[in-house]
Write a structure and sequence with these properties.
With 64 residues, this protein is mainly α. The protein contains 2 helices and no strands.
């Protein structure tokens, strides 16, 4: 009986949190956060690409 009451209390807390925060604001917040995290890797890749191409070309010339 106590386990059922604990589970019910936990489910109620989750339900209240979902009602309070809603799904759209949570979705938007996590989407923006994820986009910002991914953007850092996009920037790194964009500005390192020419350097890596130059290094690869130099290594090909060295082998030939």
């Amino acid at each position: 009986m106590a386990a059922i009451m604990k589970r019910a209390a936990k489910n109620t807390a989750v339900l209240l949190a979902a009602v309070r925060f809603g799904t759209l604001p949570v979705f938007l917040a996590t989407s923006v956060f994820t986009a910002i995290c991914d953007l850092s890797f996009v920037i790194l890749q964009r500005y390192n690409r020419p350097r890596i191409i130059k290094i690869a070309a130099h290594q090909v010339q060295k082998k030939a």
